[in-house]
Amino acid sequence: QPIAVLDSGVGGLTVVKEVMRQLPREKILYFGDTARTPYGPRGAEEVVAFTREIVDYLIRYNPKMIVIACNTATAAALEDIRGRVALPVIGVISPGARAAVSRTATGVVGVIGTEGTINSGAYDAALKRLCPDIEVISRACPSFVPLVEDGNFHSMETLLTVVEALLPLNRSPMDCLILGCTHYPFLAECISLAMGPDVALINSAEETARDIRAVLEENGKLEGEDGAAPVHRFVCSGDPQKFLEIAQAWLGEPVLVT
Ligand code: DGN
């Protein structure tokens, strides 16, 4: 039985990479909605409708659990999907919030994400639930996802776009910045250059993979250490060749895309 992972495009691969590292025996079935990316500027109702469609598709493959590896879809649709399916469903926002709260010393945390994620207030709520006194500085960065979907991770154009978008955050006393969009770890080098060495970047993938393990353990579904190496499967709604190139470069191994 696979773990089903979904995103609006290639962003959820940042979570997949961490699952492969922490849980190497688990089989992954990934869906990237590359034909309809980006989700960020879409209304919550549309994001819920798209997420429902993808989950209905993934369910046919009898997964152990569903991972919504997209902050925009987590903010809009996590509760809706939990109410619709009988499987465990997890998102990426509470894991990222938890990682930031345990990391910050100043109590000032930055969050960057899509317009959908930032406008939903989901990170503010998740962070304040864990730590009521925390100060949260948020900014939507709508220009980032298209760069990642184009495979444009390190160019001068990318660096300039990132620096310009993050300039307003630069003088704040935050000591960590949540990458509140699963596409952003692809741009981590540029983001880190823009923010300087005193700001730690929080990638929710690591913490999300820990949550996945906890859910599987709780349900007695964790694969044993001695199992065979799993064959993962990747499905995208857009150009499979472009997806394949980005997936192989990011994951560092050949992948099967259908
Ligand atoms: N990767 C997605 C996220 O984490 O919000 C969304 C990207 C998008 O579609 N704009």
Give an account of the 3D structure:
With 258 residues, the chain is an alpha/beta fold. It has eleven helices and nine strands. It has helices at 13-22, 44-59, 71-84, 93-103, 115-120, 122-130, 144-149, 156-166, 188-195, 205-218, 240-251; strands spanning 3-7, 28-32, 65-68, 89-90, 108-113, 135-140, 176-179, 200-203, 233-236. It has a five-stranded parallel β-sheet, with helices on both faces. Helix 1 links the parallel strand 1 (3-7) and strand 2 (28-32). The model has no long low-confidence stretch (mean pLDDT 96). Bound molecules: D-glutamine. The site of D-glutamine (DGN) has 17 residues, from helix 3.
Low-confidence stretches: none
How many distinct beta strands? 9
Shape: globular
Largest sheet: 5 strands, parallel
Named once each, the bound ligands are: D-glutamine
User: What is the percent of helical residues?
Assistant: 40-55%
- What integer value in Å does the Rg equal? 17 Å
State the distance separating the first and last CA atoms.
18 Å
Rounded average pLDDT: 96
Proportion of beta-strand residues:
15-25%
Structural class: alpha/beta
